[in-house]
């Protein structure tokens, strides 16, 4: 879950490494470090804490090559020694690593017996010492890398620099992402796309078991058995403003405000008056006709988007629908049959659990579809077909705009598949017309920020909260509660409104905050009774509704009316704002909540 980077090019390695680490910081932020080489001297820095420039780079000169790392600790506590880059006994071979070396303890014992001196408690450092041994044996760094890889078990993306081969930068990928960015006589290697446009718009996403050897002029990609590999250039679709905070204080709020644009981008070029065009999915042709069951999966917020998808698919199609979080599904004895299609949802496209479920499904030859935001990501490349959500880069650890795009993509997919089965064109037309109005309605909710701040200021002293919703808005309750926990650190639980009587009602006492998502839908009046029930016990109820009569309620947030199945696209937005502003008033580190990283690329 760390971020790694390497640069070889035009004497500005330090600038590029620091700028890249800032962009990758969301992947891990407990410590960081870099190595820069200028042809004469190595500059090595390891720092615990925030990536700041001035105080930590005093005395460091720019160079033409460098590697950097931002860490989210897995093996070994947070300390300078455990921060990357790690190095061999001679301090010549330096490397940065994202992933886990599962057999590091055995390797370490062997290396210690041979007399190697370790400088850290990490799993990563064994790689440096193995490289040192093999380099000595073969007098060739490339060969040393190939031999070392034979010994490693686990998942890793590596960038390697050797002082004896300073014009060669080596990137390795096995089950952890690594992208090569290609500029004008300069190259960058990075864990994801965000740093790539520091050198240009062109990139190649490495596949598993690939190594890239980068020199100042060129590069070549080989597999782990040293055979040449073909590659595909892709182009980044976003610009500088998409990855900077601009005038916003945090990425999270910037991304919440980008929601209408994200949804527009997801819809762009895909809607006809009464049908949906999904190029990638269409390529599956007749295979789609044999599907009778859909299994949805994802983690965290992506899973909740999937849960909304479950209700949507049940409404618009006649498939049997199942859903589970990827971290459970991957270990269940789930019987995928050949009539099943798996839909995996992921913003990053790198979440390890989600990726594993897809791999399992592929072994059983079932159709795998991805709803993914990041082009070139592992999930987007492994699935049979999919829909890119095009929400733009999401940098805050808390996922927001991507969620709306995921739901939008799922609705489009349900319509696309539904039209081949039970859904009529006029029903599709009706939904699509309403779907087009969603971004505008979202903009109106974003204007309610000051009302939401008032409600948030009442929540800052709360130790615990409940979020309730029914049917399409039960996943919304789950998502609202997740965000409140994740960034405000307030304990929040979500329940389907109808479940209160079966236990959680006992929690309710005077002034206990309960957020109830209650648009005018098929369960509206039942939810009203649930609200009365909790109010009678003294709860402070915050209602999210499209009912104008709700003006009589003390705390309510008004959202515009829409079709029942589209309500989550509106009702979640006040909850994202509510969590954000509560966290802000509590002075939390919003973009970097404690203990969390954005892309969970390890188990
Ligand atoms: O990149 P993914 O969408 O696969 O990530 C899934 C979860 O890790 C992610 O949604 C996580 O729950 C967020 N921190 C929630 O805000």
Topology:
Elements: E1 3-8, H1 13-24, E2 31-37, E3 42-48, H2 54-57, E4 65-71, E5 86-87, E6 93-101, H3 104-113, H4 125-138, H5 141-151, E7 154-162, E8 169-174, E9 179-182, E10 187-190, E11 202-205, E12 210-214, E13 219-223, E14 234-235, H6 240-243, H7 251-257, H8 259-267, H9 279-282, E15 293-298, H10 300-316, E16 320-325, H11 326-329, E17 340-346, H12 352-363, E18 367-372, H13 378-382, E19 385-388, H14 401-418, H15 425-446, H16 449-459, E20 464-469, H17 474-488, E21 491-496, E22 513-517, H18 524-535, E23 540-545, E24 555-558, H19 568-585
Parallel strand pairs: 15-16, 15-17, 17-18, 18-19, 20-21, 20-22, 22-23, 23-24
Antiparallel strand pairs: 1-4, 1-10, 2-3, 2-4, 5-6, 6-7, 7-8, 8-12, 9-10, 9-11, 11-14, 12-13
The structure holds 5-amino-5-deoxy-1-O-phosphono-D-mannitol (M6R).
Spatial strand sequence of the major β-sheet: 3-2-4-1-10-9-11-14
Heterogens: 5-amino-5-deoxy-1-O-phosphono-D-mannitol
Q: How many strands in all?
A: 24
Termini gap? 10 Å
Amount of helix: 25-40%
Please describe the biggest sheet, giving its number of strands, its sense, and whether it closes into a barrel.
Answer: 8 strands, antiparallel
What class would the helix/strand composition place it in?
alpha/beta
Globally, the shape reads globular
Helix count, DSSP H or I runs of 4 or more residues: 19
The Rg value, from CA coordinates, equals 25 Å
Q: List unreliable stretches of 5+ residues.
A: none
What is the arithmetic mean of pLDDT?
A: 93
What percent strand? 15-25%
């Amino acid at each position: 879950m760390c971020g790694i980077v390497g640069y070889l090019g035009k004497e500005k390695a330090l600038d590029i490494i620091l700028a890249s680490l800032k962009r990758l910081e969301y992947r891990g932020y407990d410590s960081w470090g870099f190595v820069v080489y200028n042809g004469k001297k190595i500059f090595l820095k390891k720092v615990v804490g925030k990536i700041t420039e001035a105080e930590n780079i005093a005395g460091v000169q720019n160079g033409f090559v460098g590697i950097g790392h931002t860490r989210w600790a897995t093996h070994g506590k947070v300390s300078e020694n455990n921060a990357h880059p790690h190095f061999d006994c001679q301090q010549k071979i330096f490397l940065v690593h994202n992933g886990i070396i599962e057999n590091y303890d055995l390797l370490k014992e062997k290396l210690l017996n041979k007399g190697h001196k370790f400088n850290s408690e990490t799993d990563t450092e064994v790689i440096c010492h193995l490289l040192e041994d093999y380099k000595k044996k073969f007098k060739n760094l490339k060969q040393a890398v190939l031999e070392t890889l034979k010994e490693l078990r686990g998942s890793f993306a590596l960038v390697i620099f050797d002082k004896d081969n300073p014009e060669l930068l080596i990137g390795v990928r096995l089950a952890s992402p690594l992208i090569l960015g290609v500029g004008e006589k300069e190259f960058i290697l990075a864990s994801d796309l965000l740093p790539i446009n520091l050198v240009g718009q062109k990139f190649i996403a490495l596949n598993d078991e690939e190594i890239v050897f980068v020199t100042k002029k060129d590069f070549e990609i080989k597999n782990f058995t040293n055979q040449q590999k073909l590659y595909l250039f892709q182009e980044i679709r976003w610009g500088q403003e998409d990855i900077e905070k601009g005038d916003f204080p945090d990425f999270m709020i910037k991304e919440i405000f980008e929601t209408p644009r994200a949804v527009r981008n997801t819809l762009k070029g895909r809607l006809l008056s009464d049908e949906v065009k999904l190029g990638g999915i269409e390529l599956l042709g007749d295979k789609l006709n044999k599907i009778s069951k859909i299994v949805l999966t994802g983690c965290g917020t992506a899973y909740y988007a999937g849960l909304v998808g479950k209700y949507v698919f049940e409404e618009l199609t006649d498939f049997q629908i199942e859903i589970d979080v990827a971290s459970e599904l991957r270990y269940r004895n789930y019987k995928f049959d050949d009539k099943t299609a798996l839909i995996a949802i992921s913003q990053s496209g790198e979440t390890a659990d989600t990726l594993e479920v897809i791999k399992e499904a592929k072994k059983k030859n079932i159709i795998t579809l991805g709803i993914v935001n990041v082009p070139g990501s592992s999930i987007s490349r492994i699935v049979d077909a999919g829909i890119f959500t095009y929400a733009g880069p999401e940098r805050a650890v808390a996922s927001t705009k991507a969620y709306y795009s995921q739901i939008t993509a799922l609705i489009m997919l349900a319509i696309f598949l539904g039209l081949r089965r039970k859904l009529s064109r006029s029903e599709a037309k009706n939904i699509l017309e309403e779907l087009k109005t969603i971004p505008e309605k979202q903009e109106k909710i974003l204007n309610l920020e000051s009302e939401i701040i008032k409600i948030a200021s009442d929540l800052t002293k709360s130790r615990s909260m409940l979020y309730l919703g029914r049917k399409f808005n039960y996943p919304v309750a789950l998502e609202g509660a997740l965000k409140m926990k994740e960034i405000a650190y307030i304990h929040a639980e979500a329940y389907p409104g109808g479940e209160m009587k079966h236990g959680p009602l006992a929690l309710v006492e005077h002034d206990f905050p309960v957020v109830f998502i209650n648009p005018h839908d098929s369960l509206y009046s039942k939810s009203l009774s649930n609200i009365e029930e909790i109010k009678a016990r003294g709860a402070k109820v915050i209602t999210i509704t499209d009912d104008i009569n709700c003006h009589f309620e003390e705390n309510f947030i008004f959202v515009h009316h829409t079709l029942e199945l589209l309500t989550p696209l509106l009702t979640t937005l006040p909850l994202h704002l509510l969590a954000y502003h509560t966290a802000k008033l509590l002075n939390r580190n919003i973009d970097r909540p404690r203990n969390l990283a954005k892309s969970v690329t390890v188990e």
